[in-house]
Amino acid sequence: MIEGMVITIDGPAASGKSTVARLLAYEMGLQLIDSGAMYRAVTLLALEQGVDISDTQRLVSIAKFVGNNLRARMEEGARVKIFIDDRDITEEIRGAAVGKFVSPVSAIPEVRIQMVEAQRSIAKGGGVIAEGRDMGSTVFPDASLKIFLNAAEEERVRRRYVELLEKGKKVSIDDVKKEIEIRDFIDSSRSASPLRIPDGAIVIDTTDMSVEEVIFSIKDLITGICHT
Ligand code: CDP
């Protein structure tokens, strides 16, 4: 039964969505849709090509290209690598420049249309865990299970700061806080598919939970729907 399911995990920046979705997909043999990586890839290519944020036409053509050519490869140990054709962009899409521009790019409705089309096409056969901001609200409103992960802002900032330090990035906690606050603000206040708790979603506050605990409770919910 799990093979046909679409499970959505939405939430604000650094709420733990990516880690949890990645591990669940790996353990359960489901396909992962990391929609944030798709928006980040569009932003990376736009920056590289010097495309202005007001140039909707060029941004849409980059979004189309990303929709057709982005691949996520699940590797040993639940590590996910993101490719555009043969180019590995896993690290670059997490860089500071992309972090600064990804929310303004993602707020453009025409860019979202392209991404939503690509996400639905990946999920055609089911057996998918989709994580992002609008997975349960807009892209897969009929998902079998919708989760909304949240955590106190201070904890989300701490997690992202530790993650960046572990990757050897030199950042200040104030800069991390600023980026998260700005992105959350833009993502929640945009008119196209704003970050919201989707109808029918189960909210999990992960502030005081370990990754293992979050995974355990989601697996419990999956088992519950498999038996109904
Ligand atoms: O990992 P983190 O939560 O920091 O970010 P992400 O999931 O990689 O998403 C990066 C950005 O992409 C978000 O801040 C949103 O602006 C945008 N995004 C979106 O608009 N819709 C989605 N479904 C996923 C991401």
CATH superfamily caption: P-loop containing nucleotide triphosphate hydrolases
Mean pLDDT: 95
Number of domains: 1
Poorly predicted sequence stretches spanning 5 or more consecutive residues: none
Envelope shape: globular
Kindly estimate the percentage of residues that lie in beta strands according to DSSP. Answer: 15-25%
> Would you count the extended β strands for me?
8
Q: Count the helices. How many?
A: 9
Ligand kinds: cytidine-5'-diphosphate
Helix share bin: 40-55%
* Assembly classification: single chain
Q: Secondary-structure blueprint of this entry?
A:
Elements: E1 6-10, H1 17-28, E2 31-34, H2 35-48, H3 56-69, E3 70-75, E4 79-84, E5 87-88, H4 96-106, H5 109-122, E6 128-132, H6 135-139, E7 145-150, H7 153-166, H8 173-189, E8 202-205, H9 211-226
Parallel strand pairs: 1-6, 1-7, 2-6, 7-8
Antiparallel strand pairs: 3-4, 4-5
Helix pairs in contact: 1-9, 2-3, 2-4, 3-5, 4-8, 7-8
The protein binds cytidine-5'-diphosphate.
Cytidine-5'-diphosphate binds at residues 13-14, 18, 35-36, 39-40, 102-103, 106, 132-135, 183, 187.
